Structures are given as C-alpha cells and as structure tokens.
Amino acid sequence: MRVEMFTFLVTATIVLAGSLGVVLLRNPVHNALSLIGTLFGVAVLFIAQEAYFLAAIQVIVYAGAIVVLFLFVIMLLGVDKSESLRREPILGQRPAAIVAGVAILGLTLTALLSSAARVTGEQSVLAPLDPAVPDINRLGRVLFTEYIFAFEVTAVLLTIAVVGAVVLIRRAGDPIDLGEFPDGTMGDVLAARAAERNPTIDDAADEEAGLDETADDAAATDDAAATDDAAGGER
Amino acid sequence: MSALLSAVTPLLALDPMLEGDIGFTQVLVVLLKVLVAFGGLLVTVIIFIWFERKVIADMQNRLGPNRAGPFGLLQTVADGLKLILKEDLLPERADKPVFKLAPFLMLIPAFLTFAIVPIAGNFNDGNDGVVTILGQETFMQVADPQIGILLFLAMSSVAIYGVVLAGWSSGSKYPLLGSVRASSQMISYEAALGLSIGSVLLIAGSLSTNAIVAGQAGWQWNLWMTGLVPFVIFLIAGTAELNRPPFDLVEAEQELVGGFHTEYSAFRFAMFFIAEFLNTVTMSAIIVTLFFGGPSGPDFGITGWVSDYVLPFVWFFLKVLVFLFMFVAFRATLPRLRYDQLMDLGWKLLIPLALGWFLVLTVVRVAADEELAAVEVLGVGVLAFLGLLVGGGLLLLSIRASAAKRAAAAAEDAADESEGVR
What are the pLDDT digits (tens) for B189-213? Predict the structure, then answer.
C-alpha cells in the first residue's frame, strides 16, 4: 500500500500545482505548460491504477497533440504578453463563470459525499480484470462489439468537425495565392519578375524580332496568373 | 555480495518502493540494465558524431576531424569540454525558466525512448529473448511495458515541446519561426509515423517491443511481412521527425540563422546537439526493432552466454549501423525540401498511402483469419491493392482538379483587377 500512497502523494501534488498554475499564471504559454504538468500527473495516476493504455493515450493525444496546438495558436497570434485582468471580453462572463464553478464543485462534492464507494455507479477497480490480457485488447474488443454504435457515431462527429473546419477557413472569393510558390526553377521565376518590372523592353524586342503573336498567347495560357492581353509583358 | 546485501538492507527498508515482493536483486538488475543501456547509448552517440563528420568529410573529399586522438576519435569529447567551459548566455528578452527547461525536454525523451528497445537476448530457441541475470528472468531491454511502442510515440510527441519552447522562450524572431515550422512539421509527420507503425502492429498482434521482435524470429522480418511500404513511409516520416536533412527546415541556416537554438550557447546548446544525435541513434534502433527483427539473427549453432548476449548484440549493432550510415548519406546527398513540398509529401502522399496500405493489410489479415487457401488470400490481397490504386487515383484527381479550379479563380481575379485598374 505504501508504494501506491507514495506515488499518489507525489503525483497529486504535481496535478494540483499544475492546475493552480493554469488558473493563476499570467503568461498563456506558462498556462499551457502547467496544463501539460497536470496531464502528465494524471497519466501517472492512470499507470498507478494499471490503466497503461489510457496513460499512453493521455500523453500522446492531450499532451502531444492538443496542447501543442494551443501553443501553436498562442505563438501565431502573438498573445504571449500578460493580459490585463480588468478588461472583460464577453459581457457577463465573470458571474457566469463563478456560477458554473460553484455548480461543478457542488455536484462533485455531492457525488463524493453521498456515496462513498460507488461514485460512477460501478465498483471501482484497482487492478486489471485479467492480468494475462493487456488492457488494449480488452478495450478494443469492447469498443468494436458492445459499443460499436457509440464508437461509429463519435467517428462521424469527428469527421463532421474536420469538414466544418475546412469549410470555415476557406472564405469565398479569397482563393489561395498559388503565385506564392510558383512552378519552375528559381531562374524562371527571376526572369518572369524581371519581365514584369519592365515589360516595354520585352515588347519592343518581340516586335523587332517579328515574333508570332499566337505563339506568345499559347505560352501565356500556361501561366496561371497571366492576364489576357498583357500576355507579352507577363513573360 | 551477501555482505553488501546485509549492509544495504536496513537502508532499503526506508525506500517505500521496495516493499512487498520487490527485492534487492530486482532493483540491482534494473539498475544494471539502465547503466549498461544508457552508458552504451551515450558512448554510441559520441562515436556516431565522429562517424557522421568523418563519413561526410569522405563524401565531400575532405579529411574531417583528425587531430584529437587516433583518427580524430576524441574530437567529440574535445568539443564537449569546450562547450562546457564556454559562457552560458541568457538573452535579456528570454523567458528564463522556460529557456532553461527546453533543452531538458529534448534530452530526456531521447533517453527514455531507448528503454523499450531490445538490444540482446536469444530469440532463436523459442524462449522469446528471456535471459537470466542474478537468478532473475528478464529481457535485455530496460523496460517492456504493456504499451510498448506507444511509449515511443508519446516520447516523440513530448520532444516537440523542447523545440517549440526553445524557439518561443528565446524572445527572438528566427528561433520562433524555426519552432513554429518544427511543431507543424513534427505533428504532420507523426500521423504517417503512427499509421505505418499500425501496419507492424497488425502483423505482430501486440504493442510490446519484445513481442514484436519475437514475432520476427527466423527471418520473418516485418520488412517483407508488411510489404515494404510501411518501412519506406516510416523511414521518411522518421527522418522528418528527427528534423534531419533533407527535412531540416527547422534549422535551415540560410533562412533562419541557426533555427530554434540560435540563442543557445555553451552546454545548453550541447544538450540540443546531443539530443539530436541521440534521437538519430534511437530512431535507427526503433526501425531495426520494428522492421528488421531487432537482435535476432542466425546463431551458427552456438549456445550459452555467447548466443544470449554477444551474437544478438552484434546483429543488433550491425543493423543499427546500416541505418546510421543511411541517415548520414541522406544528409550528404539530398538537398533540403521547400516548405510546401514538405507539407505536400506528408499530407497528400505519406498519410493516404500509409492509411491505404494499412487497409490492404487488414483485408489480407481477415482473409487469412477466415482460413481461405493461400491462392485465395493472395487474390483478395491483389484485389485490395487494386482498390488502393483506384482510391489513390481518385484522390490524386481530386487534388489536381481543385488545384486547377483555384488557379482558374486566381487568374480570373487577376484579370478583373487589371481591368479595374484600366
């Protein structure tokens, strides 16, 4: 029992310190880092309960993907300054948060105090149901037989979320600028730019050489950004 | 030994971890394995840095390091000493605690991943690599957790933080750009990495690295059991995950000065440097474990401790060496990818291919489980492969079509604009 107690005390300290850090620190990046601390602590607690697969997924999905995306957004938006706590971005946000917080705390306390051993309605377990079978096999079997419907619905939900994200970021009338990464070698790009800067020289040269206009047009249609009658200048 | 044991026992009683059925010898075995594995890993890294510089020098018709020690072997040690003695600069605009934390976040996952790699043990006698040390039956790897290879994925996702936080906390533009590139690159390629591991798990039927290696004994290497494609994807995605050339946009000198560790100096820089090479060695070891049968190999009829420790380790080391050389050759021969090419390769080729190949393997596996004849299994596999080709063709077509549509829209916009100007 001492091993479990020792592990629990150390990890619980980390989890609590991390969650306090998420709330109290001013810098968004420090908040994200505290969140990682909490997530790691919870992963260790999972291992202490011998739920190895859950612990691995906790680290890979939450710590590895989601918080990295948080950090990514924080960096790209440049909100790495300490924010003033006086300003309230959404009206009535603060009272609502207090009400929600008290409600959640009340619910948790009620659940914990009213039923000492059966919080979720199931007997709690401290060891794998069958030590010979890894828990991922057990989880897989249950997910793809008993809970297949819930599993598939969740999959559809995630797909909808992905499609929705793609639709939302693509505003109409604002196509992606393909000119940012043009085709061809750097030499072609530089030549095109030079021609763009002083088209008169090119035009004059073309006329002097008596080049066929149709050949110019044919070449211009290849160029995605070509305008119709400035074709000679585009090249 | 017994004198030592009796002397240490009262002390051990104080350790809460040593109660119950965990005895002194178990702890001693673990400590021994940790020391041997990580000590060996560090020495390998020091030699690998010399090896890389020497091989690249050969390929570029130079001499390479040849002053410190025989053949310049001690050059890495000399560099390390120099870096320790240098001044440790802290940029004024740096976020100091995070700046100090970042190198450790790189180094520690690099070490931890190696814990799940089996480095020796006899896999030919049907004992699945069990060896007996001090009367304890154990595997020749530091740990064999249930989640096995998932630990590798978890650690590689933690390593991203080292890069991201190093770049952000430097308080400077170029490191920040480098780290933003790094995070998007590593997240993109982790998907392909995970999907190609999925193919291996489908064949092995277990997450444990020991079981994966045991399943490959007797030349049943996953390299051909999974049909080569997952290996190629893993190699490419792994190189990208390591941020090594040709995927080293994270530290592209010409664009970003030095990348995410521009502001680091002295020993903190050395930690990034060591972590990078540690990761390369570990990635080679993981490739060998997943696809090349780990330490298993022919034992020439030898039994006893030679076939338990020496021969498997030699096989393992030779296989790892091949991949270390391959990574060096990549660096010496391939030009760096452009950023859009990097993203195209990851998202439009590797991820769909890995997913499609995984589905083909699943179909074959199901056919085999239904106990069809070998010809029928092969036929089903070919059918699934054709399906993969059709799906891939459709995907390619849709990508092309939408690109053409966007180009047409852009051309129309440009035409409108020029008319408006006139």
Answer: 888 998 999 999 988 888 888 888 8
Judged by CB atoms closer than 8 Å, whether chains meet at A63 and B95 is answered as: no
| Overall residue count recorded for chain A in this entry | 235
Helix pair angle (A148-169, A135-144), 10° resolution: 80
The tokens of B334 are what? 């391939």
Which residue of chain A comes nearest to B194, CA vs CA? Answer: A60
Q: How does pLDDT run across B69-106, given as a tens digit for each residue?
A: 888 888 888 888 888 898 888 888 888 888 888 889 88
**In B, which residues are within 8 Å of A3 by CB distance?**
16-17, 19-20
DSSP string covering A106-165: HHHHHHHHH-SS-SSSS---SS-S-TTS-HHHHHHHHHHTTTHHHHHHHHHHHHHHHHHH
Measured CA to CA, the distance from residue A67 to residue A105 in angstroms comes to 25
* A3 with B16: Cβ contact below 8 A: yes
Find chain B residues with C-beta within 8 A of A71's C-beta.
Answer: 161, 164-165, 168, 183
Across the interface, whether the CB atoms of A60 and B160 are under 8 A apart is answered no
State the number of CA atoms in the 13 A half-sphere of B207 facing the CB: 20
Q: How far is residue B330's CA from residue A83's CA, in Å, rounded to a whole number?
A: 46
CATH class of A1-82: mainly alpha
Give phi and psi for B192, each to the nearest 5: -65, -40
CB contact under 8 A, A136 and B207: yes
Supply the DSSP symbol for A193.
H
Q: What is the pLDDT of residue A12?
A: 92
CB atoms A5 and B95 under 8 Å? no
Nearest to B278 by CA among B103, B32, B123: B103
The residue whose two tokens read 């002390």 is B11
> Is the CB of A59 less than 8 angstroms away from the CB of B340?
no
How many of the other CB atoms lie within 10 Å of CB of B299?
17
Q: Nearest residue of B to residue A2 by CA position?
A: B16
Domain boundaries, chain A: 1-82, 130-173, 186-234
Q: How confident is the model at residue A184 (pLDDT cuts 50, 70, 90)?
A: low
**What are the counts of helices (DSSP H) followed by strands (DSSP E) for chain A?**
11, 0
Determine, for residues A2 and B160 on separate chains, whether the beta-carbon distance falls below 8 Å. Answer: no
CB B312 within 8 A of CB B334: no
Q: Which residues, in sequence order, are CB contacts of B273 under 8 Å at separation 6+?
A: none
ipTM for this prediction: 0.78
**Which is higher by pLDDT, B291 or A175?**
B291
Residues of B in contact with A155 (CB under 8 A): none
Higher pLDDT, B257 or A102: A102
Supply the DSSP string of B331-379, one letter for each residue: HHHPPPPPHHHHHHIIIIIIHHHHHHHHHHHHHHHHHHHTT--HHHHHH
At B86 the three-state DSSP class reads coil
Give one word for B274, left, alpha or beta, with left for phi > 0 and alpha for psi -120 to 50: alpha
Give me the percent of chain A exceeding a pLDDT of 70: 64
The amino acid that residue A8 corresponds to is F
Helix (H) or strand (E) holding A185: none
**Which of B93, B116, B152, B161 should be substituted to probe chain A, the one whose Cβ sees the most A Cβ atoms within 10 Å?**
B161
B388 close to B360: Cβ distance less than 8 angstroms: yes
